[in-house]
Amino acid sequence: MTRLSFDKKSITARLILPSGDAVERLVQIRTHPITGRTCRIALSRTGQSEPGTDHFPEPPPDVANTVRCPFCRPQVESMTPMLSGAMSTAGRLKYRESILFPNMFPYGSHSAVSLFDNRHFVEIGTAFAASYADCLINCRNYLNMVLETSPADVYMAITQNASP
């Protein structure tokens, strides 16, 4: 019996943790040998689980608790990673109310998170058009920087997460 196996390629994301330590995060890209479809494995998440992922509470679970939220200001400056010096000497990209920084658990060499604004919780369908525009412009600016520093990285995506 012939056994099929995924083709595997590893890439590295470089970022600076909130502690100031520079780290590299390994990401594995696996390609199915028959379908050609790919998936990304964030190896830095091995053995971790997100709090609350065993079940989802009714939103907003702690709408008033912004003190420990890494995405609320002023914590965003001390609790989120920074871009490596090759990408930006500022550490984070800002465009109006949007702030962009590396994803702590990247899915690619240049994975980033861009916050729309400073609201702790935004119910689906209630985001401001200006917030979307600012965030997309911030992402565009970052992707242009990626192209300048890594011209071979031409396949890009902007995605959005939403909590239930």
**Shape category:** globular
Distance between the termini: 44 Å
Quickly give the structural class.
Answer: alpha+beta
Poorly predicted spans: none
What's the rounded overall pLDDT mean?
83
Work out the helix count: 2
Strand fraction: 15-25%
- The portion of residues assigned to helices is 10-25%
Largest sheet: 4 strands, antiparallel
Using only C-alpha atoms, the radius of gyration works out to 18 Å
The side-by-side strand order for the widest beta sheet comes to 3-2-1-4
Number of strand elements: 7
Order of helices and strands: EEEHEEEEH
Key traits:
single chain, 164 residues, alpha+beta, 4-stranded antiparallel β-sheet, 3-stranded antiparallel β-sheet, 2 helices
Would you write up a description of this structure?
It is globular, with a radius of gyration of 18 Å. The strands form two sheets. Strands 3-2-1-4 form a four-stranded antiparallel beta sheet, with no helix packed on it. Helices cover about 15% and strands about 25% of the residues. The protein has about 160 residues and is α+β, with helices and mostly antiparallel strands. It has two helices and seven strands, in the order E-E-E-H-E-E-E-E-H.
